[in-house]
Amino acid sequence: MLTDPSDRLSSWQGGNCCNWEGIKCSSSGHVVVVNLRNPNPDEVIINVNKELVLDPNNTSNALNGTISPLLFTLNHMQYLDLSFNNFMLSKLPTEISNLTKLTYLNLSNAMFQDSISTQFSNLTSLRSLDLSCANLVIDLSSITISLTLPPKLDFGSLSSFISYGRLSSPNLRWLEGLRGLRYLVLAGVDLSKASESFHWAKPISSLSNLKSLQFPYCKISGRIPTGLLLNLTKLSILEMSSNALTSSMPDLLSNLTTLSTLDFSSNDLDGHIPYLPQLEELYVASNPAMIINLVSMFSVPWSKLTFVDISFTGVGGTIPPSLSNSTSLTFFRADGCSIQGLIPSSITNLKKLSVLMLNDNNITGQLPVIMSSLTGLQYLSLFQNRLQGQIPISICQIPSLEYLNLEWNELTGRFPSCILQLPKLSYLYIQMNELNGNMPLSLFQKSRLDQISIGASGLSLEIDDQDQPFVQTFQPMILEFTSCNMRGEIPDFFSNLTNLTILNLANNSLSGAIPYWLFNLPSLSVLDLCMNNFEGVIPSTIQLKSSPFPTIINLASNNLQGPIPSQLENVNVIDLSINNFIGLIPTQIGEVPGIRSISLSGNKIHGPIPESFCQQPNILQVLDLSNNSLSGTIQRNLGNCKSLIYLDLGQNKLTGIVPKELERVTSLRYLDLNGNEFEGSFPTVIENFQDLEILNLASNKFEGRIPKFIGNLHHLRILVLASNCFNESIPEGLVKLENLQYIGFSRNNLSGPIPENLDGLKTMMKRQNEATILGYVYSLKFTGAQLEIVTKGQTQLLESVYSYNTGFDISGNALTGKIPEKIGLLSGLPLLNLSHNNLFGLIPKTIGEMSSLESLDLSYNQLTGEIPETLTLLDFLQDLNLSYNNLSGRIPSGLHFDTLYQDGTAYIGNKYLCGAPGGMNCSNNGPSITETVENKYDQENVLFIVVIFLGFVTGLSAVFLLLYLIDDNWRNMYWRAVDRIVLKIVNSES
Predict the structure, then answer these.
(1) Hey, is 869 helix, strand or coil?
(2) Which residue of 442, 491, 790, 931 is most buried, as measured by CB atoms within 10 A?
């Protein structure tokens, strides 16, 4: 039984089937064509949450149900197309083998699920066979929407999404009889089992008439079966992308002289690209081990080459001028290839070029002014390079330009406003540059742009004449104006933007109340107004429109007041943090279907955490209620949030213990409970969080020992347990965590020595890349960590933790022993604080090897000896504190070291340290301070021995004198007592 939403089968009535829609008959009245292809296929969309969704603008026209066996009694049929329907994961009809006259068969994306064996073996007349299981895909995962910080997302191969309606084939022997095949498409068919055989492709080699062979997303592994493919002398298209092929591209492919399209992208190939002069289209993107020398490649003519995609391969070097010799090129893409140098001006010789993409490289210099000669250019994308200079006004002379992306460069000067008047331009991205000047908002209203992103470009956007009439042709889908120095209120004409899906006005100086009509725009799915000066209340009901993107409300960092809205519809992410919201957390907010992220931190809300949070089922992944006045305990129902990756309840008034039910949240990566009144021992539930990267339990009432299992949390990067009552020693396993970058154990009762073997702290051994952000871009929301660090004796709060905020702080404990010599291995540490302990011995010379050190605090210990000369090698050192120890000798001198604390405050409390406040006075002509101290020690030792000797003699004399004066009985009693004491000592030692 089939259901037909598009009413395609309504004509299937009456006795003459030849008049039915999708049916064609021969002159003799036999049905020869059955075309039930979905005329409007559902587009499968990968959204930024790494999920498959259907295009909400499409109404499904797919037939649903199962196919009647009667269809396969039409044994004169030559053409059958059932593609892009939904046959409910049913098996391939066995009766299909009766259609022996079929020349065309298309069952692609029809939601069959079966193992292919002999169903098609009898169809020896077939010329075209398509059994694809990979639906038409629109990949939105690469779209960057800057909300708080721009995400950089990588979702890998699409094959992981192809799970429904998958066909599989344990081998390809069923192909052997189909000698007439010219077109074979098995996209998404699982061939993993088949490809385990060395000769898995042998049945294909017998298809000598084959022109097109397409096997993408088939889980094929091993080498390219070149020898078997060489028999396909008529092959024009070879596509084996998104598999697991591991060999080099063989030079023998050049023997396939009819080959025009070659696609081996998204595999694990290495080696180089062989010279294939007849090739028209080449796709080898996402093979990072493949080395491509563009100079060598284009030193020979590729006269027919039109499409080239070498993205994310090992290119390096520069773009050679010889690229322009391939005058047929229309499409050239080389993203993420480490290309350097200038864009050669000769590229303008590529008169047919319509797409040029060189994103994520190290290209420098200016855009060629003569770019205007590329009159057919439609798509120009150069984001994330190092381009400098001005945007050439000559771009305004490219009338065909539809897409322009120059974001994340170092471009300067004014933006040529004439670009906005290009007749076909729909997409403009220039954010993250160093442009200057003002741009009236009215300039954009006169354009036909569909997506605009100019955030943090250096431009100031002026909200000019509000009274001018609205231009109806201006109906953008995306407006991204972050950090554009916008002032005043949100313009009224925004209320006419009926297509607006994403509006981002973050980090400006906008003020006034947020107009209620903004929440009612008919297409709005993402609204980001964070970091402005908005005030007043917001509606109690907020409804967003469904979208391929996560639906987001971000009003953080404003001056908004009133209660938290209680009714949220179609909201995936809500961020109301750092405002003045008051009252209780509404019960309903935890019950919103599809809610993924809730951030209410930094407000004035109070009361308990609602029990409505984490009612099953739920998909909540981010919950941030920090910096409020919440009270009570952690509700046990939070254990139902099995998708939770980020939980921040810090800086509240929560009490009690961490409930055992949280152990079910095994996906947790970020846990912050700092600044509450939790008590008891270290929470044992944390042992279940094997993916945990950030743990902050500081400023609570936890006590007891730090458990050994902390050394099993191998992903841990930040561990903060400061200001608790933890005791006993630091677990040895802790210093074996290779990813650990911050240890904060200050102000506890820890004792024992610092662990000796620090060579397991691999991340602390290298200076980190300051451009790398530690945290998560989840649903386009940056969730960073907060840390308290102590420098110059003052506590500082780091709002966001970057990968270079590494540190080692175990101050304010009762640790003993020496500072380990291996401390010098931690050369990536900027912060080392061992102060206020009972450490003794010398300062290790190896500290001078900690080349990244910016803050060193060893104060309030019992360290002795001289300050190592190696400390003068620490060029980045800014904060130094060695005060209140027993250091001696001279303070070492160095060009940078001499500038630190010339007032001597870093050395106070070391009375034998030359030049320290209250220390010894040194003279260049006298003995060294070390000799002086040693002499003083010698004098003091001699005096001490003399005094002890005199005291001993005096005391002994007094005893004998006393014994002499008393009678014999007292003398005998005394010596007997002495004998008993000596006897006890001897017996105890033996």
Answers:
(1) helix
(2) 790
